[in-house]
Predict the structure.
Amino acid sequence: MDLKEEEFIYPGTRACAGCGMALIYRIALKALGPKTILTVPASCLTVLHGMQGFCSTKLSVLHTPFATTGASASGIVASLDDKGLSDEICVVAFAGDGGTTDIGIQSLSGAAERGTNFIYACYDNEAYMNTGVQRSGSTPLGAFSTTTPMGKDGHKKNMPKILEAHGIPYVATACASYPLDLYEKFQKAREIKGPKYIHILAPCPPGWGYEPKDTIKIGRLAVETGFWPLYEIENGRMTLSRPSKKYSDEQKRKPIKEYLETQKRFKSLDNNTVQNYEQYINDLWSEVNQRLEREQE
């Protein structure tokens, strides 16, 4: 599959060099096309859009308070329904992990429960990067942040699982390092009626502590070590995405230490924490493989 050549983001944004979120946004907008309305809360993406009175995208964007992304999207969908345009125009909420797993989870849950016809995309850079790298519910075990200087206790919140529990028709994971997979998932979500949720790993050079040139490499390592499985859940049925299929076999995964050692935020990890990660990944894939086996029966 070839990506569309048309760009929906103007050059010269205020995103950081090597920003995984900027890459995700660029690819997603290509898949969504011009008949799209976006709503975005306070986040790194509002920085990419620019100062008040200016926006770096060719598409209509409504900036909304941190907690209200799901409600904002619901209001836009209701207005389009009233005008008879809901089948023509796609409504997409784009938020970071802080605005999704924490501050925005209430309005997102409400929109999902009501069956709102929209796409909610979480670009997950695993902390509140825009306000100084504070920990979020999506920050992984042992990661340094300004509010967890000794490393975070506990693993990250499983938001795709929480959204699946709402009974919505489409849930998927993706990663900035696999643009074709990301593109296909947004194209598919656009054609499905009802709430759709896509959770996307977005490597962040300043927040994770690595050189901007390594963004793609680090995102791929997250998948290759099994830390970030890529999958789709359509009407309750899970399928692994092509880049993740072989990593259901533990012997084919790279050691998680290869991923952790690429980032300064994990520089204080001890062997016990690395072993905790190994067990976490094994348990995660055991659950995935058991589910896939049940669904094939």
Summary: The chain has one domain: 20-296. The first strand starts at residue 36 and ends at 41.
